[in-house]
Amino acid sequence: MKLSAVIIARNEEDMIADAIDSLSFADEVVVIDNASTDRTKDVAKMMSAKVFSANSADFSRLRNEGREKAKGEWILYIDADERVSPALQNSIKNKVLSSKYDGVSAFRVQRKNFYFGNHEWPYIEHLERLFKKEKLKGWKGALHESPEIEGEVGVLEGFLLHYTHRDLAGMVKKTIEWSKTEAMLRYKAGHPKMTWWRFPRVMTTAFFNSYVRQKGYKAGTVGLIESMYQSFSMFITYARLWEMQKEVES
Question: Which residues are CB-contacts of 42 (< 8 A; sequence separation ≥ 6)?
């Protein structure tokens, strides 16, 4: 088996089918279902994916589980809200599924983000997502996970399309859910005591990174809303950290 695709999913019944459909060129699709309470598992099985159940807030653990279940020589990771574009699909075929493979251990993809539907974000991310299985030693990091790779990393043409932050209700729900994990990671790392001035600093930094560095201003109203939301998200995370620190003190 040449190529396995791995999807980590949780309550993505509305998105998982299109994600799997964009992976039709893979030899197998492995879905690690992270304690979904909707029809994610059923939909994935209907799409002929191999589904395995898990329950963890540690994303590295989930990705490593996908690595263990995948049978292919190569592993491509995508999320349920991501789609492999035709151009990226062709690049993967040319790079690793043909005789043109040049010996690198992994490939970066260019990820294009879309907010609130089809509003394209100006900033393009570059992420390691395609790996020769024997060269991927594993993933580390509970929430912002990163791969440990042995060897050189190449770059694929085409885009991985990311349809994230589709509506405010979903955004707030996700922030409330994952901010606790974010705060706990900072707490365990010995983050300095939260005082009033740290809040405007982290919120301003988040807004500046999104609106200025990533050129969110080019996205008009959506860019302003997304950048302000990034600031709000940081506030929630650090407010939770403050709450944890106060509980220990009392």
Answer: 13
Which single residue is written with the structure tokens 């365990």? 188
- H/E stretch holding 179 reads helix 168-188
For residue 146, the tally of other CB atoms under 10 A from its CB is 12
For the chain, helix (H) and strand (E) counts, in that order, are 7, 10
Contacts for 230 with CB less than 8 Å, ≥ 6 apart: 206, 207, 209, 210
Secondary structure (H, E, C), 118-138:
CEEEEEEEEEEEEEEHHHEEE
Q: 3-class DSSP state for residue 17?
A: helix
Q: How do 3-9 and 74-79 pair as beta strands? A: parallel
The residue type found at 208 is: F
Collapse the DSSP code of 249 into the 3-class scheme (helix H, G, I; strand E, B; otherwise coil) and give the result.
helix
Burial of 184 (0-12, 13-18, 19+ CB in 10 A): middle
Contact 233, 206 (CB under 8 A): yes
| DSSP summary character for residue 209 | I
pTM value is 0.93
pLDDT in tens, 139-186: 998 768 899 999 999 999 999 999 999 999 999 999 998 899 899 989
For residues 110 and 92, the answer to whether their CB atoms sit within 8 Å is no
In order, the DSSP letters of 54-74 are E--S-HHHHHHHHHHH--SSE
3-state secondary structure (DSSP) of residue 139: strand
Q: How far apart are CA 31 and CA 62, in angstroms?
A: 10
